[in-house]
Amino acid sequence: ALFGIGYVMRPIGGILIGAFADRAGRKPAMLITIALMAIGMVMLAAAPGYATLGGWSQVIVIVGRLIQGLALGGEVGPSTAYLLEAAPGKHRGFVASWQIASQGCAALIAGLVASALTYAVGDDAMASWGWRVMFALGIGVVPVGLIIRSHLPETAGEHADPAAAESTLAVVRRLVRDHGRMLVLTFLIIAASTVSNAVGTNMPVYAQATLGLTETISTAVPIALGLASIVFPLLGGWLADRFGRRPVMIWPRALIVVLTVPAFAWLVRDPTGPAVYAVTFLLSALSSINAAAIIVAIPEALPRAVRSAGLSIVYAFSVSIFGGSTNYVVNKLIALSGDKLAPAYYLVAFSIVGTIAAVLIPETRGRDLEANAEAR
Fold first, then answer.
1. Rounded to whole angstroms, how far apart are CA atoms 314 and 321?
2. Under a CB-based contact definition with an 8 Å cutoff, are residues 9 and 69 in contact?
3. Which of 42, 129, 155, 315 has its CA 20 to 30 Å from the CA of residue 122?
4. Torsion angles phi and psi, residue 145, rounded to 5
5. Residue 259 CB-half CA count within 13 A
6. d(CA 190, CA 182)
7. What is the DSSP letter of 363?
8. How many helices (H) and strands (E) does the chain have?
9. pLDDT value, residue 263
């Protein structure tokens, strides 16, 4: 529940900060999100134990998670719009794919640090105080991020207007009215991608609770997840520039439909560390290639005046609904059915929907972003 509660605020962050980025510019919005994330991490790292404050310690942690969710919900739209608008026209897919690859870097570093820390201090110390070290390291990155972002040139140009009269509610209404079909299709595409990511992040739990592997093996699973999430988004971005956004959204997702059940069946028959790492890497690689095309196609299809808000809102709602629930749902399905392949069936169902939605979405490679700048 504590993990999931952070997702509650993501749609609100997507709406408020995404719309703010379209009015005031990408740069101030990105400074706000990193500052909010810093506040959330400080609250989590410094939260007193239950024995010290009782229920109030829980309140501090919950508020910290809500602030983090607000920041994350508002981060994707402005940062992706910035990369897209700053990139050369023929390389927008590759440049924007760094948005996904940077998340892979974070997952890899987190997996390496968590594994090393658990090995060094042991499970009991990790549960007692070691987890705070992870947040302390995150806080240490914040000053660097603030310095970098404060020196970035603004890409929203003359369209950035902090005093714009149009309200956030008006932006949302215009998005739904003028781009409703696009929003629905992208919601379904991102939902499939989100479920893929959530099944991947659930693999440590699946390895330990369902397959009976050790905590040492399960703790290292995010390393495989992170490795795939660094290299393959960049490959996906390059492919999207070369062959178009739609093919790169369609074919990797279709391969997930075909390969997921056999991969999990092999994993259940051979529940070893290498098998878990291989399946995690395979699914993460395909999903990462797919995600790179998604992250560029959606903002390309929207005019500049609603580009950040459109991506932020759709992404935040999809991730909030499915990112926060998938881990619970798949583990509940395993418990109710006794079928260890339940996560595979769940992922395949969403991937079928995501593939169909990708077939229906327009191709945006080569679209002139400046020609769309004045569109309403």
1. 11
2. yes
3. 42
4. -65, -40
5. 17
6. 12
7. P
8. 17, 0
9. 97
Residue pointed to by tokens 């007692």: 128
Say how far apart CA 190 and CA 20 lie, in whole Å: 22
Are 96 and 295 in contact by the 8 Å Cβ rule? The answer is yes
| pTM summary value | 0.86
- Measured between alpha carbons, how far is 236 from 244 in angstroms, rounded to an integer? 10
- For residue 303 the two structure tokens come to 């005019």
**Helix (H) / strand (E) containing 279:** helix 273-300
**Contact between 76 and 315 (Cβ < 8 Å):** yes
Residues in the chain: 376
Q: How far apart are CA 264 and CA 373, in angstroms?
A: 46
pLDDT tens digits, one per residue of 269-278: 999 999 999 9
Q: Which two tokens stand for residue 99?
A: 């948005």
State the CB neighbour count (10 A cutoff) for residue 108.
19
Residue pair 225/308 in contact by the 8 Å Cβ criterion: no
pLDDT for 296-332, tens place per residue? 999 999 988 889 999 999 999 998 899 878 988 999 9
The CA distances from residue 372 to 86, 299, 307, 353, in Å, are 15, 11, 10, 29
Q: Supply the DSSP string of 18-85, one letter for each residue.
A: HHHHHHH-HHHHHHHHHHHHHHHHHHHHHPPPHHHHTHHHHHHHHHHHHHHHHHHHHHHHHHHHHHHH
Instruction: Write the DSSP string, 165-208.
Output: S--HHHHHHHHHHHHHHHHHHHHHHHHHHHHHHHHHHTHHHIII
Collapsing DSSP to helix, strand or coil, 340 comes out as coil
Asked if 221 and 280 touch (Cβ cutoff 8 Å), the reply is yes
Q: Is residue 1 helix, strand or coil? A: coil
